[in-house]
Amino acid sequence: MKKILVTGGCGYIGSHTIVDLLQHGYEVISADNNSRSNPEILDGVEKIIGRKIKNYHVDLCVFDDAHAIFQENPDIIGIIHFAAFKAVGESVENPLLYYDNNLNSLINILRCCEEFGVPNFVFSSSCTVYGNPDSSPVTEDSQMKKAESPYGSTKQMGEEIVHQTANSNNIQSVLLRYFNPVGAHPSGEIGEIPIGRPANLVPAITQTAIGKLPQMQVYGNDYPTRDGSCVRDYIHVSDIAHAHTLALDYLIAEKNKTNCEIFNLGTGNGYTVLEVINTFEKVSGQKLNYTIAGRRAGDIIGIYANNEKARQVLGWTPAYNLEDMMLTAWNWEIKLANNTSK
Ligand code: WQD
User: Fold this and answer.
1) Number of domains in the chain
2) Does some domain include residue 43?
3) Where residue 23 falls among pLDDT bands split at 50, 70, 90?
């Protein structure tokens, strides 16, 4: 069997990727200390797949603990590294927490990759590495501006660390730059579980609609866009997940031309915040209680992807549209509310 280590496997994108890997013939183990995730998400994975997934409850910043996973699993042939903190605002308030956690965990995993000769490595990156682009769509060759936050810096540095380590150790690697992952698995068994008040748009929408939040704010409607609100490229989390499986297939088949290749994961469509809200109201039948507030520090005006490279090289095609994203997110929020009320 092709055994894959998924770090951050109890997270939002990690859990959806585990489902896709298992559905495509891979064997999977997870490593997640649940500092920002809920181990019960793997129960949802089990309901979808019908098998239990082993999670190593370890802090990957502790080298010996990371190393022990590889000693116990010498047959790991690939790693997908999700484990990282990703709250932009928190990173601005506490930069060293982000540099310490996101970079030391990555370095430890790469050291194990070197020592145990793991040939394939997929790195969870982000469109945030582009900073505030001059124009969209952005391609993988678009200029990387100064990151807008320490979180974004850890992704820019992380890409460089992977690239240089892959070069020096003949590791075959792929960097996947997610745009805005949203939505939930169509089964309703797994989805995003924000910790505390959600910073991101879609969980803020669904928590307001279900009544967990009294009201939400639209951060600015005076931007130079179609309706004054910011533009982002929202992409369904299951489409993001499947791209990871295709990236591993690509590396294992040795189709890669260099040992560090980059792919944008976005739909190629930019939607404004107000368009997302209108789409949510349409598919859910819920009128959303929101007000227009001032701009949020650090927000960029707009960005969306040129995803041709992932389409051509990986054979990846996003399957979900914005309505699907809103409906699956809403169904998941309803599921969470029902579980809480039990
Ligand atoms: C989107 C738009 C907000 C909340 C995120 C992650 C980042 C990275 C990229 C993974 C912005 C507006 C939001 C609200 C609002 N992901 N908004 N009211 O900032 O593009 O970045 O995706 O690597 O980690 O933070 O996404 O969902 O926070 O914001 O008006 O209550 O929605 O101003 O224009 P963002 P977001």
Assistant:
1) 1
2) yes
3) very high
